[in-house]
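Annual report, structural modelling task.

Input specification for the alpha-L-ribulofuranose complex:
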Amino acid sequence: MATRNYVTRREYDAWIAECAALAIACRYPIQAEMINDNTGLVFGDDQYEAFVNGMWSREPYEVFAIFQALNEPAIQGLPEGGLEWAQFGGLCDKLMIVHPGKFCSPHLHWRKTEFYEVVLGEMELYYASDILEDKRLQVTKKGLVSSHPMPKGERRPSGVRLPKGREHTYDKLTEYRRLGVGEPKFVMHRKHLHAFGCPPDAKTPVVIREGSAYSHEPTATGKASILSNWQGIHDNGFLLEGLDEGRLKNHIRES
Ligand code: RUU
Ligand code: CO
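The model returned the following structure:
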């Protein structure tokens, strides 16, 4: 039974300050506006339980932090007609910090392809190497320019502790990879299911640099200044129903 559906201001600020300190130590260009009440992501009401024993409890919950340094539509200079597929392009650069035992919830992006570079620690990556047909998420392989499967991973180790009650949402993510510092960048193509986490016994949170096409999210910076027909686009499709808002609004209790 969940006993918590909020994070206190003190807990939230301490979590994000620790992540920001790590990001700065990793030489990521943190600017003041990148630290706000959307920097931390909590994937649903029941995941606030993570704050009862704190970010270092090593318990499995879907919570992590994102510092977004760049989100650029990159439509300048496109030839006439170029806007048709521009939503699938653009530039985005962010740093993601996941504490030991914590996860990013299984999802896909209809438009965005992303890549990861591990900056500190180890990343446990879960994904589907193929585009899987999904009625609810409106994913189909029909009519795509190219839909070659992505490289296979390993079989997921049996001892992985997935978030309680959400284990089934990882079932289709059959491929597993452990990525470390200095290894080749890993490309996650659009429409492929993916999730990731930090090993529970890790000495540090995992720090991951993600490069990608433009991130269409409710909190994306620059939303107001770009083409008005991009403003309603949410490109994060979660397997767990109810998370579809992409970045949900945090319940931070002020006192
Ligand atoms: C990581 O896979 C990610 O796509 C981030 O860029 C956020 O948009 C949520 O998941
Ligand atoms: Co993603």
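The helical segments are 9-25, 50-53.
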